[in-house]
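User: Please fill in residues for this 315-position structure.
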């Protein structure tokens, strides 16, 4: 499956793609219909095949209810493979019962169980130059799987089957990162916007956008494609190895120095760091970030067969 077939411009259509990119660059929520049948990326039947033929266990495959994971002991069991190997596998009847009782099924790293989903993640990774992962969510009940929260990533939501209601809340803290999680309070009051995402519709949520998905008398199958953009913290981390070439940063700190000596020490560090945190190093950082390999060629057994047949024909 060629990932170019699942580019955002093809899926959304040219005009909606341009609107999306504008919203993306400005960090604004964006919602629209797909132009192409994105619902073909994963159907409920295809998901059924995946969860019945793969060894999926907690936490990669998990059930969530009211924002909390259902105890994996409720729907996982220890068993043995045909060769006697110890394995952990899902208990089908328990999984079905929990979902019917309102739990949401979440499957991480979905790009590793579907070539089509992988094609989408590779297309997004190459376009945005950030490694992208996919999580599948499925529910049939009327109970919330996840409560109000924000994600430390930009998230592209594809509603593939059924529908889901979304509540969005105004942000009062710009560009939060994972380290801010414990200090930010869940917003109170009414949401700033509520809507239903129907089958074959798309929703973009920028990093840090408070949201609360909930069921609306329908089953729901959607995929979240998530990636985290480089920021100033990443740039500083990139610069850290360069500090080792400067004596002031390598020297031990004198724990017994007085306040004047400490001020001199800080000034010296600041002066040398100002030489390091430069436009040239920023360009170097951005170039290294943009030259990463995101799309790897698949294993094509059919090509091996054809190559072998060609060799045999020449004999």
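Assistant: Residues filled in for all 315 positions:
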């Amino acid at each position: 499956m060629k990932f170019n077939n699942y580019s955002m411009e093809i899926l959304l259509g040219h005009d909606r793609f341009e609107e999306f990119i504008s919203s993306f660059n400005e960090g604004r929520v964006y919602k629209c219909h797909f132009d192409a049948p994105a619902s073909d990326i994963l159907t409920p039947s295809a998901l059924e095949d995946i969860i019945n033929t793969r060894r999926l266990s907690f936490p990669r495959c998990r059930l969530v209810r009211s924002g909390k994971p259902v105890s994996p002991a409720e729907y996982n069991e220890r068993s043995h493979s045909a060769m006697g190997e110890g394995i952990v596998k899902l208990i089908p009847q328990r999984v079905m019962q929990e979902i019917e009782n309102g739990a949401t099924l979440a499957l991480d790293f979905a790009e590793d169980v579907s070539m089509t989903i992988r094609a989408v993640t590779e297309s997004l990774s190459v376009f945005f130059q950030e490694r992208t992962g996919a999580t599948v969510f499925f529910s049939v009940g009327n109970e919330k799987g996840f409560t109000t929260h924000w994600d430390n990533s930009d998230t592209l939501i594809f509603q593939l089957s059924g529908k889901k209601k979304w509540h969005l809340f105004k942000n009062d803290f710009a560009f939060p990162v994972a380290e801010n999680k414990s200090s930010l309070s869940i917003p109170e009051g009414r949401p700033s916007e509520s809507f239903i995402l129907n089958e074959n519709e798309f929703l973009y949520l920028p990093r840090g956008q408070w949201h609360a998905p909930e069921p609306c008398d329908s089953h729901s199958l959607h995929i979240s494609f998530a990636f985290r953009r480089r920021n100033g913290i990443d740039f500083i981390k990139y610069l850290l190895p360069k500090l080792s070439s400067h004596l002031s940063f390598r020297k031990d700190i004198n724990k017994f120095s007085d306040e004047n000596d400490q001020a001199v020490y800080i000034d010296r560090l600041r002066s040398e760091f100002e030489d390091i945190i430069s436009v040239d190093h920023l360009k170097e950082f951005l170039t290294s970030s943009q030259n990463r390999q995101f799309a790897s060629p698949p294993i094509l057994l059919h090509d091996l067969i054809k190559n072998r047949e060609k060799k045999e024909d020449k004999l």
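For context: The radius of gyration is 24 Å.
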